[in-house]
Amino acid sequence: MRTIRYSVLAMALAFTTFIAAKAQTADEVIQKHITAIGGADNWKKIKSVKMQGTANAGGMEMPLSIAILDKKGMKVEYTINGMTGYSILTNKAGWNFNPFQGAKKAEALTDEMVKEGQTGLDIAGPLVDYKAKGNTVAFLGKDDVEGTECYKLKVTHPTGKSETIFIDAATYYHIRSVEKIKADGKEMEQISTFGNYKKLPEGIMWPMSIDMGGGGPMDVKSVDINKGVDEAMFVPKG
Amino acid sequence: MKKQIVLLAVAALQAAAYGQTKVNSYTFGAMEARWLGPGTMSGRITAIEGVNKDSKTLYVGSAGGGVWKTTNAGASFKPIFDKYCMSIGCIAIDQSHPETVFVGTGESNMRNSVSVGDGIYMTTDAGDNWVKVGLDSTEHISKIIIDPKNPQNVYAAAPGPLWSNSKHRGLYKSTDGGQTWNKIFYINEKTGCADVAVDPEHPDVIYATTWEFRRFPYAFNSGGKGSGMWKSADGGKTWRELKDGLPPKPFGRIALTLAPSAPQNMIAIVESKETGLYISADGGEHWKSQSATVNVVSRPFYFSCLVIDPKDPKRVYRPGFGFSYSDDGGYSFADASYEGGWVHSDHHALWINPNYTNQMYLGTDGGVYYSLDRGATWMFVYNLPVGQFYHVACDNNTPYRMYGGLQDNGSWVAPSAAPGGVNNSNWQNMYGGDGFWTVPDLTDKNIAYAEAQGGNMGRVDLTTYKSVDITPQKGSGEEKLRWNWNTPIVTGQSNNHHLYTAAQYLYKTTDQGRSWARISPDLSTNDKKKQEQEASGGLSEDNTSAENHCTIFTLAESPLNDNMIWAGTDDGNLQLTTDGGKNWTNTAKNYVAAGIPAQTWVSSIEPSRFDKNTVYATFDNHMYGDMKTFLAKSTDAGKTWKMLSSPEFTGFAHKIKEDLVNKNLLFLGTERGLFATIDGGESWFRMKNHIPDYAIVRDIQIQPQTNDLVLATHGRGIMVVNDISPIRSLTPEIAGKDVVLFENKPMPVTTGRFGGGGSPVSGGWWGGNPDDIEPISYYLKERASQDVKVEIYDAAGKLVQQVPGTKRKGINKVYWNLRWTPPKTATGGSKLDYGSFIAPQVLPGTYMVKLKVGEKEYTNQLKMVHNTDNKLFTEDDRKEQYKAGMDLYHMHEQLYTLVDKINADQKMIKTNLDSVNKPQSKKILNEYNTKLETLRGTLLATKHASMFADEKKLREEITEVYSSVCSQECRPTNLQTGRIANLNEELKQSSVAYEKINTEYKTKAAQAVKEGKPRPAASGAVHSN
C-alpha cells in the first residue's frame, strides 16, 4: 500500500507545475464532460444496465450482451453458432466460460485479475464523483486520438491501477481509455474506444459503439437502464 | 464596391473552409508505417537500466531509436518515447520509487554520426507520460545519477554541444526531484562533464570528470586543459581536483566508477598521452596505475563504460571494443568467450541484476545481449529494431527487395513481403564494415552494389553474396582519393545502366564497375586546411576515414536527361553538368544568395521528374553548430534558389524526395522527423502515421510498382508506408468535403499473395506484410460522431457483406475480405462449427460499395477482376470453385433450417412432457423425441465437446469440404465434387427422414398431449415448428 500511495504522490509531485497552473482546467474538463454526458445526478441514479448488441467478424454477426449491476457484478455473454460463452466479474470473484473449444465449465479468474477488473463495475465511470471514489486525476494537457484533439486525463484508482482517459475537446465525450492491467506477473494494456453517442430516455449520453480491440466493435442495439439485473446471473453455470 | 465585398466575403469563407480542413499530421494517420527492422542486426545501444526490485523491467536507450521498455526481462519490448527525441544519452531509475525515470537525450558517444538531444525528460508513471524538465540546449547528456538516500537530489553530467562552443555544459543538479536544474560545476565553453558518481554511503561525496572535446566536419579533438577528475564533499558546492597518482595532464575523456558495495574503491580509465587504467582504494585521493589490456584502454572517447559488480567490489567489467572482466579489482582482465557465436564489438552500456549478479544486459553497436554467467558468454536479443540505416534503395522485383547500409553493421537486403510476414530470417547480410549506400542493379536482378567505410565498394552477386572489389583507383597525377565516410553510389535515374560513385572526382561505369571513367575534375573546394585527418583524434589518434573531407557527398542523374548530373560536396559545392561530365558549373554561390550558409554539406539533391530545370536540394550545416532545416528549390537548373521553410520543420535536413506521380507531393527527411507537403512546398506537416515524431530519416524512396514510401531511419531500421496513392489524390478540394469515398482500382479477387509462413517466432522481430487485399478508403473531415458502415452489393443489388467502418478524422481504411456473408450453420451441437465463419469469394464482376455515415450514404462502383497472378488458377477454375462453394453454402443453410426445426420440435416436446402425466402420452412423446434426437445426432456433432475429439457428422462433413474449397485458389477436385453430391444427397435423405418422423408422430403427439394432460390444455395446440 505504501508504494501505491507513493505512486499517487509521485504523480502529484511530477505534475506540480501542471496541476498548479491547470488544476482548474482538470476539474473544468471533468465538469464539462459530465455535463455533456447528462450530468452527475442522472448517472448516479443508474443502478443497473443491460446492453444488447452485435459484433461483426468477417461478416458473421455475433450477438453480445453486457449486464452490469453497479459495483456488484458484470456479465458479458456472446453467442457464436448457437453456443454461448460468458465472462463474469463480481466484487469478489470472476469466471470465464469458453465452450467453443470444449470447456464444459467456467474457469475462475485469478485474484489479481478480479482486483484489476473492479473498476469496470462502476457504471458511472471513474470521473463522476472521482474525489469521493478516492481517484486521483492528473490533467496531462491535450493529445490526439486518431487525429481528434482530446483532453488527456490520467486517473489513478485507490488500488493503484491507472487508466488514461481521452475526452474529445469538441464534444467532451469520452472517446478512448487506455488501461494498464498488471496481474499474475504480466502487464497488459487494454485500449477501449467509444463512439456513436446517443441520448437515452434517462437523460444520459451512451456510446452505441464500443471497441475493445480484437474482434471489431460492439454495435449496441439497446440499452436498458434500471430495468433490473438479477444478481443470480453472476453465478457461473455450465 | 458591393461586388467586391461579396467577393471578399466568399474568399474569406473559402479561406476559412480550407483553414479548418488543412491537411495535417493526422490526415493520413491510418496509413500506418510498417517497421521492417531488422531485429537480427540491431543498432547502437547507449543505455540500459533495470528496476532492481523486480529484475525484469528494463529500459533500453538507443543512439537513434528512442527508449524501449520490457516488463518481462526481454521477451518483448515496446517503444515508449516515440513522441520525443530519438537519441538517448542515459537513463536513470529512482530505485526507491521505480515509476520515476529520467531520460537524458543526446548520446555522448561522440562519433562523427552522433545525433543531438534536446534535454532531460522525466516520467513518474513508468514511461506512460513524459515531461521535459530542463537542459534543453546541452545537446548531449552522458549520465544521470539519483542520490540513493535522497532522491530529490539528482545529478546530470552534460558533455554539451559537440560542434560548437557553448555554456550549456557541465554538471547539473536538481534538488527538487528533477523539476528544476542548476549548473553546479562548469569549466569553460569547450569543456563539459563526461562522468559523475555519487558515493551511495555518503551521498554528499560526488565525483565528476570534465572533458574538453570538439568536432569539426573534418577533424576531432579529445583532450585539453579543461579535462580533469574532481571531487566534492558537500554535494557539489565546492570541488577540488584529484591528481595524486594520475598521469601528467592534459587529459581527454575519463571514465570513472566506484564499487557500490565498497565505495572507497574506485576505478578510472584516463585518456592521456598514454591512456591507462587507475585504481583507488581511498575514494580517489590516491590512484595507482594498473597494467591494462588493449581492450580496456582503447578508444576512450567512444568507450566510456566501466562497471563494478553491485555486490563484489573486486569484480570489474569493462565493456569496450570487446567485453573484458576482472576478478581482482582491475589488476588483470579476461575477455568474453565467443562460444555460442560472435558478440558484436563496441560496447556502451551494462546493467547487472543486483539480485542475481550472474545476469546482465549489454548494449553494443549492434544491439542488446544478455548473459547468465557473469559476462563470459552472451545471447542476443532479436527483438529490438533500432538499426541505423544511412540509405535505402528498392528494386523492381515482385515483391520488391529493400537494400540498405547500417552504421557499423554492414549492408543488408530483405524482401518487402514474405510468407507469414517479413521477419528476421528474411534479412540477409550482403557486405561488411559500416554500411551506407547499397543499390540494386535495375538492369540485372542478381547484382547489387555495396560499400564499407573509406569508399571500399563491391559488386555483389545476389545468388551467392560473393563480391568483387570495384573501388575506383587513383590515377597517375591525381591527388590521393578522398572518400567520404558515406560515399555515394548511385544508379542513373534516366539510364539505369549508369552507375556513379565519387571521391573528390566523379566516376561513372556502364559495365557494372568493370571499367570506370572519371567524368569530373575535383568538384570540392580542395581546401587543404580541411584535409589533415591523420592528425585527428586529439590525445588518442583516431582516424577511421570518418573525418575525410572535401569530398562529393551526394549526386543524382536527372530522370529526364542522362547527361544532366548533379553533385553536391561536403564542403558546400553544388555542381552541375549538362553534357555528361565534360563541363561543370558550380552553383554554390546561387544557393548562398537564397540564404543558405556557405560551405554547408549538400546532403541530398533531387532533380525533378516533371521538369528538367527543376531541382530540390537539402543542406546540412550541423557540423558548424547550426541545426536549422535547409531545403531549397530551383526552377532554372540552379541559377536561382528559393528556400522552402516551415514552422513545422525540426532538425537538420538529410533528404528531399519528389513523388513519382504528383509533382506537388514532396517528402523531407531530417534529423528530427519526416515531413510532407501536398502543395509543392507551401505548407508542410509532420508525418506521424506510426512513425516516431522525431524519427531520424536519412533516406526516402518511393517504389514505383507498389507506390510504397520506403524510409531509411537512423535508429529504427527500415519503415514502409504501403501505397501512398491516397496522399497523392487528396487535393485541398477533397479535404474540404465532409465525406469522400475514394474509388478503387479494379480489384483482383485473391486469397492473398502468400500461403504458409507459420506464426512469428517468439523473441524475434516481425515487420508484417503489405495489405493482401486493397482496402476500401474514405476520407472524413471530422471524426464521425455517428455509426459508420461499409456495405458491398452485387450487381443485382443483393447485400454481399456489411463491414464495420472506422471513424477517424482523415483517411480511413476498411478491409472487406472479398467474400459473401458466411452462412448460418446448424446450431445446438457440442462444439463450434467453423463453417459459420467461412464464405465463398465473390466472382469477378461489378459491385457497389456503399459507405454509410449516420444517415448519409455514399456509393461507388467496385469492379472485381480475376487475379491473373496465380497462373495455376484460371477464371474457369474460379467459376467451378464458386459453384461448389455456393452449393456447400446453401447446404449449410438448408441444414441449419432442418436442425432448427428439430430443435423447435424437441423444445415443444420437452415443454409438453412436463405438462402431461399420462404414461402413454409420455411414452409417445419420448419416442418422438428419441427419433428426432437420433436423426439430429447424424446431422451435427452432439456428443464430444473436446477440441481433441473428432466427431464428424453431416455439418462437420460439409464444413470440411466447404473450408477446403473456399479457402484456396483451385478448381475443386473430382472427388471433392463427388463428395459434395454425396453430402447433398445425405442432406436430402435427412430431410426425408425428418418428414417421415413428423408424419408418423406429429398427429400422434398432438393427440397424446391432448389426452395426457390432467385438465384440457388451454390451447391444446401442438406446434411442431
Fold blueprint:
The complex is a heterodimer of chains A (238) and B (1025).
Chain A: H1 2-14, H2 16-36, H3 40-44, E1 48-57, E2 60-69, E3 73-80, E4 83-90, E5 94-97, E6 107-108, H4 111-117, E7 136-145, E8 148-156, E9 162-168, E10 174-183, E11 186-199, E12 205-211, E13 218-225
Antiparallel strand pairs in A: 1-2, 1-13, 2-3, 3-4, 4-5, 5-6, 7-8, 8-9, 9-10, 10-11, 11-12, 12-13
Helix pairs in contact in A: 1-2
Chain B: H1 2-20, E1 34-37, E2 45-50, E3 58-62, E4 67-70, E5 78-79, E6 88-93, E7 101-105, E8 120-123, E9 131-134, E10 143-146, E11 154-158, E12 170-174, E13 182-185, E14 191-198, E15 206-216, E16 219-222, E17 228-232, E18 240-241, E19 254-259, E20 262-270, E21 276-280, E22 288-290, H2 294-297, E23 307-308, E24 316-319, E25 323-326, E26 334-335, E27 347-352, E28 360-364, E29 367-371, E30 379-380, E31 389-394, E32 401-406, E33 411-415, E34 422-423, E35 428-431, E36 439-440, E37 447-452, E38 456-461, E39 467-469, E40 489-491, E41 499-502, E42 506-509, E43 517-518, E44 537-538, E45 552-558, E46 561-569, E47 574-577, E48 585-586, H3 588-593, E49 601-607, E50 615-620, E51 630-634, E52 642-643, E53 653-658, E54 666-670, E55 673-677, E56 685-686, E57 697-703, E58 708-713, E59 718-721, H4 725-729, H5 732-735, E60 739-741, E61 747-749, E62 766-768, E63 776-780, E64 788-793, E65 799-804, E66 810-814, E67 845-853, E68 856-866, H6 875-915, H7 919-939, H8 954-967, H9 974-1012
Parallel strand pairs in B: 16-44, 61-68
Antiparallel strand pairs in B: 1-59, 2-3, 3-4, 4-5, 6-7, 7-8, 8-9, 10-11, 11-12, 12-13, 14-15, 15-16, 15-17, 17-18, 19-20, 20-21, 21-22, 23-24, 24-25, 25-26, 27-28, 28-29, 29-30, 31-32, 32-33, 33-35, 34-62, 36-37, 37-38, 38-39, 40-41, 41-42, 42-43, 45-46, 46-47, 47-48, 49-50, 50-51, 51-52, 53-54, ...
